[in-house]
Amino acid sequence: MPLIDVDGVQVNFPFEPYPCQMNYMRKVIACLKEDYNGILESPTGTGKTLCLLCASLAWLENKKAQIQNQRRLLQDADLNSTLVENVYKDDLSKQLDLAAGVWNGQLNTPRIIYASRTHSQLSQAMQELKRTAYAHFKATVIGSREQLCIHPHIMKEQNNTAKVHLCRAKVSARSCHFYNQVENGKGNFANQVLDIEDLVTLGQKWNCCPYYVTRELKKEADIIFMPYNYLLDPKSRKAHGVELQGNVVIFDEAHNLEQICEDSSSFDLSSGDVACALKELDHLALKIQEWHQAALGSVDLDSHAVQDFTLEDVLQIKAQLMGLETGIDEIEIKDSSGITKDGSFIFEIFDKINLTFDNKNFVYNLLEKMVAHLSNDASGSIFSSRGYGLSKILDVIKIVFNAEPTDFMPLSNHKKAVSKHYKVHIRANTATKKKKCDGWGSTGNPSSGKV
């Protein structure tokens, strides 16, 4: 593979690049060296992904060398050096500054976070990486349990929320054989560029959990591949341990970015979702009553006994959701197109059911415990929703209360800002097909009501 000099950076490119590819790589390296943002585009079929990977990883090689050199210089600062040694050190530092950009004092090696819209697009990028001279870089991809879990019982669950909580329960109890093999088996995944399919295949081969292996690989990775939504959502970043500060972020296919941001900050809640949540709360209330009867009768309690919340907690949440259902039904809609209100109207709806910034964490934590119990409920084969309805309510609360009012922006100003950027749309749903209260509910037709 020919070495191409791109503004002082030796790029190992698979072939002699076309002029448009050279220009593209120059812009990529300029952004990295000068530490500024860039918006780059090139026609379809011109090898944008290959240029991005080769240029950024070639720069990273130089950046690593620069940081290593600076560490050595700091260590040698108190030692006496000859004139020749000092000249050599100065010359090396200048060459590295030319290739990597002027050293900014950072001693931690930056990582490259490569984000695209789908895992399919990420897989294509990883296949490109495999064919380059930079395939030796430590790389990993972040995926969900939905894509990476190989536990047969968890894979049978119909919705992702149930999978998450069931997985957490098994991991906490050390009852997942695949998770227990991670520490000893992660070496089988190292030093390879593995996409989602590769990880699952190897996980099945070595009986080792691919999901938790990727979390381990991420700690040492030079380049991390992930979908947009994992990067844009602060809570997802925190859950996956993704740090933006000091790292390089690449958005491939960035024309999709605006829509992804809108989707991650929006929600659609139907009367069928609320009804599903209410049905789950009825189930929980019944479980608590059964548990109390068993306790009074000194009967052995099953392992799924409700202990994290009380009947009063369930009834409180039920009253709030019934109030939400009633409040939405009372909104007058004159025609089939529905009615649109300012974004702050959502706070008016929640204020009426006593769901505010003051108590939203308490309500959210309660709902999480309830969803976790429903997901692990042994009677799930009879009661099929496994927390789908309450999970939808959780998602709504997370989005609505995502940004907290501050001393610099009190609640009244916060609501004005929400009104500026968001709208609440309510419409009648005339679908006659009843919505199933289960994990596939999000794709079914909601029951009649308002949405």
Describe the protein's topology.
Layout: E1 3-6, E2 9-12, H1 19-34, H2 48-75, H3 83-100, E3 112-116, H4 119-130, E4 139-141, H5 145-148, H6 152-155, H7 160-172, H8 177-180, H9 182-185, H10 196-206, H11 210-218, E5 223-227, H12 228-232, H13 234-240, E6 248-251, H14 257-264, H15 271-296, H16 311-329, E7 339-342, H17 345-352, H18 360-376, H19 388-400, H20 411-421, E8 423-426, E9 428-429, E10 449-450
Parallel strand pairs: 3-5, 3-6, 4-5
Antiparallel strand pairs: 1-2, 7-8, 9-10
Textual characterization of the structure:
There is one protein chain. With 451 residues, the chain is an alpha/beta fold. Helix content is 53%, strand content 8%. The chain contains 20 helices and 10 strands. It has helices at residues 19-34, 48-75, 83-100, 119-130, 145-148, 152-155, 160-172, 177-180, 182-185, 196-206, 210-218, 228-232, 234-240, 257-264, 271-296, 311-329, 345-352, 360-376, 388-400, 411-421, and strands spanning 3-6, 9-12, 112-116, 139-141, 223-227, 248-251, 339-342, 423-426, 428-429, 449-450. Strands 4-5-3-6 form a 4-stranded parallel beta sheet, with helices on both faces. α1 packs parallel to α2 and α7 crosses α18. The chain starts with a strand and ends with a strand. The relative contact order is 0.10.
